């Protein structure tokens, strides 16, 4: 008997990466420390708590489902730091990166780890792909509306250098770029819309900054489903 298809997405609060998979009727299991409910979208099942408690749930998913993809968005705060005094924080952050890799490799499933430029390159290896959100804005309609219209431009028309570490046959989608929106300060320097409007260290700010670009999410679905 064939198992139903599923996707596992780790450190995923918004579920944005999985919405196209869920719309196709594929069950998406989202794990994130901030989740406190059973579902945030049809065909999505959420699990909260500490990452160290997820192993049993993940094993049960693989026993019951044909898992098509592993996504991972490990928190980037400690991955962005450098210096010997931050060694413990970096080591703990890297353990979350390796968790995504190890699940993909153990079960021989395509996987993708996403993060901004970080210590992953020196602690593990160089990224397989680098992109800007605007590179995939063309996957969104011309009348697109941003979920954060006062911060993120429609059609993901902004820049944020993003790295991917992939394995087991993950397919990087074809780019469909749009022109990014830029803001200029009084000195004539240009800034990405994201960096211009998203300063600060609040949890909401961090969550918006780390949200998966919607165009990229659609492109990954088209290339890998």
Specify the CATH class: Alpha Beta
Q: First CA to last CA: what distance?
A: 21 Å
**Helix content percent band:** 25-40%
Secondary structure category: alpha/beta
C-alpha Rg (nearest Å): 17 Å
Arithmetic mean pLDDT: 87
The CATH architecture can be named as 3-Layer(aba) Sandwich
Description:
This protein is of the alpha/beta class and 225 residues long. The protein has a single domain, classed as Rossmann fold (3-Layer(aba) Sandwich). The protein is 28% helix and 19% strand. It contains seven helices and nine strands; from the N terminus they run βαββαβαβαββββααα. The strands form two sheets. Strands 3-2-1-4-5-7-6 form a seven-stranded mixed β-sheet. A two-stranded antiparallel sheet has the order 8-9. Strand 1, helix 1 and strand 2 form a beta-alpha-beta unit. The longest helix is centred in the middle third of the chain and has 21 residues. The two termini are 21 Å apart. The model has no long low-confidence stretch (mean pLDDT 87).
